[in-house]
Amino acid sequence: MELSAQPESAVSIELACGDCEACCVGLAVPVTHRDLLRLVAHTGLPPHELVSWRLASELDLEGEPETLVQFACGFRFLVLARQGAACRWLKPGQGCSIYSARPICCRVYPLEHDGELCFQIDGALCNRQWEVERGRIIDAVASRQRELSKYVDLVQRFNRRQRLRRKLGRSWADERAFLAQLLASTPRVSSPATRRLQVIP
């Protein structure tokens, strides 16, 4: 396990993953503004090809309703693109094909810190027990929380504008407009590989 302490939103834990790929199949991975920027820089693909949208009813969003984005068709949740039952970026037997740019939730999973204790989250799909230095978990979880907090602010700002559009009788902004707002709100950085967002084993 290694931790690379980098600027905002770049702290990451390196775990000796067992390569079972269960988390890449069983989880819908939330995507933030900085995740999107990292993915665009890493893949060269347009943002709408990197993500997908899920209905709130399809996910367990306990404690996260503020990340639902409002569109004319209703509220949607932004996640990493999937192909069939698995993450689009999973190469069976080879692992994650965007590993150096993977979302921050992937970087921290399956570890958590609640202010006092560091632990593996309940229901984690990993069948391993981790031995990770407490300070590293705290740093990584704090980095994730800062990034998620900023993302929530961006979602809420977009939703307020959507409600104003409706009040004024204007057409709703669509999903691509939201993704464009996310990229416009995030300072440009060089690619994850050149910025050393993490130490790759």
For this entry, give a set of tags.
two-stranded antiparallel ribbon, 3-stranded antiparallel sheet, disordered C terminus, alpha+beta, globular, disordered N terminus, 201 residues
Annotation, overall tally of beta strands: 11
Number of helices: 6
| End-to-end distance | 9 Å
Fraction of residues in H or I helices: 25-40%
Give the helix/strand class: alpha+beta
Shape call:
globular
Q: How is this structure best described in words?
A:
There is one protein chain. The protein contains 6 helices and 11 strands. The chain is of the alpha+beta class. The strands form 5 sheets. It has a 3-stranded antiparallel β-sheet with strand order 3-5-4. Strands 1-2 form a two-stranded antiparallel sheet. A two-stranded antiparallel sheet has the order 6-7. The longest helix is centred in the C-terminal third of the chain and has 34 residues.
Entry summary:
A hairpin with a 4-residue loop joins strand 10 and strand 11. The longest helix has 34 residues, at 134-167. The protein is built from six helices and eleven strands.
Helices and strands in order:
Elements lengths: L1 E3 L7 E3 L7 H5 L6 H11 L7 E5 L13 E3 L2 E7 L1 E2 L2 E2 L2 E2 L3 E2 L7 H5 L2 E3 L4 E3 L13 H34 L7 H10 L7 H4 L6
